[in-house]
Design goal:
This protein has 149 residues and is of the alpha/beta class.
Length: 149
């Protein structure tokens, strides 16, 4: 299904040092032009759980997202919705990502309970949008939300 995909396994630790080592290995294995798909258990970082605290392994932190994107990579983050208004939440998350990666093309695919937050490089933008169209055709109820509509 994904013939060129490479999977990076391993567990993200709650400790800053081990987490840092995990991401250093990840950056070393993902060349410029790659698309990195992150599936953090709880999504993007929240103020109540700083990096290094117990449970922080369940989040992707904005500095990590920034490092991925600044390395010439596109980033897709799988995000569960809490009990929040969906469109406002996605707008907030895309704004947070935009602050980190202002030159990336941002959009989201949203369903009832989940969102795929996309930060695409100029080179990956069109292929990711085409893939998003195909996913929407196969996944009823999935809709595209553009950044800065």
């Amino acid at each position: 299904m994904l013939p060129k995909a490479r999977f990076y396994s391993g567990l993200v630790s709650d400790t800053k040092a081990e987490r840092g080592e995990y991401f250093e290995r990840l950056w070393a294995t993902t060349p410029i032009g790659s698309i990195i798909f992150f599936d953090p258990d709880n999504g993007l970082e929240v103020k109540s759980t700083p990096k290094g605290r117990r449970g922080s392994s369940k989040f992707l932190y904005l500095d990590e997202l920034c490092t991925a994107g600044e390395g010439g990579r596109s980033v897709v983050v799988y995000q569960h919705f809490g009990r929040v208004e969906r469109v406002a939440y996605v707008d907030t998350q895309l704004n947070r990502i935009h602050e980190q990666l202002p030159r990336h093309d941002l959009f989201a695919l949203t369903g009832t309970h989940i969102a795929f937050l996309v930060a695409a490089t100029k080179e990956s933008s069109e292929p990711l949008r085409t893939a998003s169209d195909g996913l929407q055709a196969r996944w009823p109820g999935l809709q595209l939300l553009a950044f800065g509509r």
